Amino acid sequence: MDNRYVQQFKKGSLEMILLCLIGRRETYGYEIITELNNSASVLGYAKEGTIYPLLYRLQKAELVKCRLASAEANGGSKKYYSLTDKGKEILDELLLFWSDYENCINGYIAAYQQEEVSE
Question: What are phi and psi of 27, to 5 degrees?
Fold first, then answer.
């Protein structure tokens, strides 16, 4: 399979996935990356160079907010992300869209598979 088509599809859904992860509970970047990598067989491996710019973009769009907390392990600080009200609203809209999108795509797939069987 030509991987570029799969990569493009995954890129389009990654922001929604991040909003879902952050919407479950306040979390930090490394925890998000670890969670994504637990699904690596489907999503591929998440890299800091991909995830942190997306988190920054979501923050700039006021969909997520962050707070700094001290990191006990190294004495530094850790950014914790949570959804804003606007982020929750956008996520809810995206989830409705995703449901409609999924139903539409599944309809095309079913029609294709039906044609394939009848040939």
Answer: -150, 170
Are 37 and 105 contacting, i.e. CB atoms less than 8 angstroms apart? no
Ordered strands of the 77-83 beta sheet = 27-28, 77-83, 64-70
Angle of CA points 76, 72, 54, to nearest 5°: 55
Segment 76-109, tens digit of pLDDT: 888 999 999 999 999 999 999 999 999 999 999 9
Q: pTM for the complete prediction?
A: 0.86
Alpha-carbon 83 to chain mean position: 13
The domain segmentation of the chain, as residue ranges, is: 3-118
Cα-based distances in Å from 16 to 47, 58, 71, 76: 17, 10, 27, 29
The highest-level CATH class for domain 3-118 is mainly alpha
pLDDT at residue 8 above 90? Answer: no
In whole angstroms, what is the distance from residue 41 CA to residue 24 CA? Answer: 22
State the residue for tokens 């930090």.
28
Residue with tokens 């970047």: 29
